[in-house]
Structure formats: C-alpha cells, structure tokens
Design a protein that fits this description.
With 219 residues, the chain is of the alpha+beta class. Helix content is 23%, strand content 24%.
Length: 219
C-alpha cells in the first residue's frame, strides 16, 4: 500500500513544487474520502473507548518524552525525567524500567507492581509533560497537511492548528478519524459541530499518525 506524506510549503518554494505538493495532497484526500464517505450511510461506527476522551492515557510514550512520576505516600521516590533512546527510565531502588510503547496508565500499573511491597498508599501517578508526534488533517480545512503535536491533542484542536474549518464547505457533523494499529484501520465519525456549539463537552484525543478528514457538505 502506497503512502503519501505532506509538508508545509516554505517561502520561496517554486510553483512546480507547490503543484506537486497539492497533487499529492489531493490523492491523499481522495484516498481518505473513499474510505470515510461510505460510512455516512451507516448507523454504527467504531466504539469510542474511555481512553479516547482522556488526553494523557490515550497516547503511548516514546523515546524523548518528558514524564513525571509521583508517589503520594513516598515523595522521596518522585522523579521527572526523559525517556532514554533505549525506551527506559531509571527509578530508585528498582533500576531500569521499560517506558516506551506504554500509555501512562500502563506504566503506572507496572511501577505499582514493582513498589507495592514498599508503599503505604498503593498509588502512583505518571504524567506526560511533553511529547512530539504527527497527525494529518485533510479535506475541508484552510491549511491541510501535517500537524506536529507537542502535547496530547484533540481532533478539534488539530483542525484549528490546520487553520480551522472551511466554513463554506466543511461538514462538521461527520468528521472522520482514521487510525492504524497493528496493520488494521479503525474508523471513527465525530460531530465537532456539537462541540463548537457547546452541546458536547467531551473531546476525542488523537494518537500518533491519525488522519482527520473533514468532508464537504451535501447540498
């Protein structure tokens, strides 16, 4: 399966490069459209799990991420550090612990198992302080392309980073999210108009390499 990447256009870029970039983006938009649009006639979509509404639990940790680990009953064990290139962190008394590839919640469970005999209060908190990963926003937005997230980012925030909706065309009630995990594509349909109108308060948080597609209105 061929994949297409998009990059921001730099000042002074030639019209030829601009044309090639737009053609590549158009192909990506068509590909996403071909997959997402058929879902508009469905009454069911992929289930949204609780972690998709929770920013810090839905993103897997990776090398270079800055995290803080807090032990409420043993503050001497508290630490703040970056995940090393080998994907590990160092903790007092237990040494190296694998962190990359796990969500903060998963890492919390692993750390609790290592320290459960030593903790009065069986509780530990892992907070992702900073990260960096790409998501893609295509379709009816002002500046489609790649968005680099420096923190957990919601679908609505990604759209805003891409210049916002093209109000003349965008169907904000049927925004699609494509997510690839373990070779399988999962589809979600979001009503972002509901969020913008203040009628919905939960935000859908993206994961690395998610594709957000804003279809056009059907007149």
């Amino acid at each position: 399966m061929k994949t297409h990447s998009t990059k921001y256009l730099m000042a002074g870029e030639s019209s030829v490069n601009r044309s090639r970039w737009l053609k590549a983006l158009a192909k990506l938009s068509v590909l996403v459209c071909a997959v997402v649009v058929p879902l508009s006639g469905c009454t069911t979509t992929s289930r949204v799990f609780q972690e998709d509404w929770t920013p810090y639990s839905s993103v897997k940790l990776t090398e270079g991420d800055a995290i803080s680990i807090t032990f409420p009953s043993s503050p001497d064990l508290n630490t703040a550090q970056r995940i090393r290139r080998d994907g590990k962190i160092d903790l007092k008394t237990v040494g190296e612990v694998q962190a990359a590839g796990k969500t903060p919640k998963e890492l919390e469970k692993d750390i609790l198992k290592l320290f459960e005999k030593d903790l009065v209060l069986k509780e530990v908190s892992v907070i992702l302080q900073s990260t960096s990963y790409p998501v893609f926003v295509v379709g009816s937005v002002m500046h489609p392309g790649k968005v680099m997230a420096e923190r957990p980012i919601s679908a609505l925030e990604a759209v805003m980073e891409a210049g916002g909706f093209d109000n003349a065309k965008a169907n904000m009630r049927r925004v699609g999210v494509l997510r690839t995990e373990e070779g399988r594509v999962t589809h979600y349909i979001l009503n972002l108009k509901c969020v913008l109108d203040g009628k919905c308060k939960q935000l859908f948080y993206l994961r690395p390499y998610d594709i957000v597609y804003i279809p056009e209105k059907v007149f």
